[in-house]
Amino acid sequence: SVSFSTDDREEVALAELSLDDAQKAERGIALASSVVAYKDLMMTYSCAAKIVRTKFEILDEEFRMRRLRNPIHSIDTRLKSTASIMDKLRAKGLEPTEENIIEHVRDVAGVRVVCSYVDDIYMLAEAVGRLSGIEVLETKDYISHPKPSGYRSLHLVLDVPVSFSDYEQKVKVEVQIRTIAMDFWASLEHQLQYKRGLADEDGLVAELARCASDIARTDESMMEIRRRIEAEADMDGL
Ligand code: GTP
Ligand code: MG
After folding, report:
1. C-alpha to C-alpha distances, 91 to 32, 133, 172, nearest whole angstrom
2. With 90 as the cut, is the pLDDT of residue 199 above it?
3. By alpha-carbon position, which residue is closest to atom 32 of ligand 1?
4. Quick one: which ligand is closest to 87's CA?
5. Cα–Cα nearest to 57, from 82, 77, 43
6. Is it the case that residue 2 has pLDDT exceeding 60?
7. Of 61, 174, 207, 230, which one is the catalytic site residue?
8. How many CB atoms sit inside 10 A of residue 48's CB?
């Protein structure tokens, strides 16, 4: 109902020839209303991403008041493109309907939370899960269980209610929480994959995985250093 391939378009055009004007008008209205419904749904996802962003910003504020530092370095949001949504439904053998998007595509709305330290990631994930109204549908810990590529991040799928003047809709939002260092690695690795579609010709895949574990060690060290500084500050009665 949402995007036509060129072939579909031709078929529709041919079909239109045998329709009388009333039927054409009806079809036009049906198409227009499904386009409106799709745009509405995407707007709902965009609002859900904004809500989740705000929840994390509030947690950041709260933590800054209590602990005198910001756990969050930056937050980004994105909406999945229509083409990618359609690809995902097709790959799952599902019809392109709003119901199937809502039910089966968990990453239409994406929020990426970049933290300073590894322990902040888990602190924020637990805190967001305790917020009223928000439900955690899924947690994937690619920090304790990195992907073969070396990819590290904590992924959550949240179910978020979005309230409008006359109705409320719950939609899923994918959250990726990672450190600045993990984000640096994931961004560059993604660019490299995109450029080359890495088949492991020159051992580059293994080299990238090695970089990821070096980075993970550095993340651990930075967190240890922060903890020692905090412990000294506590002893100084700060
Ligand atoms: P998708 O169909 O890609 O959404 O897979 P999935 O549903 O199994 O989700 P998964 O937990 O694998 O995470 C999906 C998202 O995590 C991707 O869209 C990327 O943003 C990120 N990601 C996962 N693996 C990698 C990786 O090896 N490298 C990079 N750079 N990002 C990754
Ligand atoms: Mg995805």
Report:
1. 26, 32, 19
2. no
3. 151
4. 1
5. 77
6. no
7. 174
8. 25
Nearest CA to ligand 1 atom 1: 107
Pocket residues for ligand 1 (CB within 6 Å)?
Answer: 107, 140, 147, 149, 151, 155, 186, 189-190
One-letter-per-residue 3-state SS of the chain: CCCCCHHHHHHHHHHHHCCCHHHHHHHHHHHHHHHHHHHHHHHHHHHHHHHHHHHHHHHHHHHHHHHCCCCEEEEEEEECCHHHHHHHHHHCCCCCCHHHHHHHCCCCEEEEEEECCHHHHHHHHHHHHHCCCCEEEEEEECCCCCCCCCCCCEEEEEEEEEECCCCEEEEEEEEEEEEHHHHHHHHHHHHHHHHHCCCCCCCHHHHHHHHHHHHHHHHHHHHHHHHHHHHHHHHCCC
Residues, beta carbon < 5 Å, ion ligand 2:
107
- Taking only the tens place, the pLDDT of each residue in 47-65 is 999 999 999 999 999 999 9
Residue nearest to atom 24 of ligand 1 (CA): 151
pTM confidence score: 0.87
Scanning the structure block, which residue is given the tokens 């990631």? 121
Distance from C-alpha of 135 to C-alpha of 198, rounded to nearest angstrom = 37
Place of tokens 């904004």: 50
Q: How far apart are CA 30 and CA 70, in angstroms?
A: 50
Q: 71, 35, 38, 41: which is closest to 56 by C-alpha?
A: 71
43 C-alpha vs ligand 1 centroid, how far in Å?
24
